[in-house]
Amino acid sequence: MTDITIHEGDEFTAIFHQGPFDGTTDTRTATSDALDDEVTVFADVEGLQTAFTYKATGSRQVLDQISVDYTFAPDESDPVDDLQDRGDRSGEFDRE
After folding, report:
1. By the 8 A CB rule, do 88 and 76 touch?
2. Is 20 exposed, middle or buried (0-12, 13-18, 19+ CB in 10 A)?
3. How far apart are CA 77 and CA 43, in angstroms?
4. 75-89 mean pLDDT
């Protein structure tokens, strides 16, 4: 990505683009001496824990603040039906 120096335990700001978390940010803690190439964000969708994957597309450092842009990766995320395609799911708990 870039030559930004980060160490395990340092905080950085994740900026999410597209997908269900579009326009939101999250303060994250580095788990190694490198920025995460991808992150997984979890949300409850219709009572199910759902994983959404975001891939790093850029980063920047301003003074001591590091920000990383993450773009939604729908092919690597759990499937979620569009709202208009959900219909009546009373009693349905299994995914195909």
Report:
1. no
2. middle
3. 12
4. 67
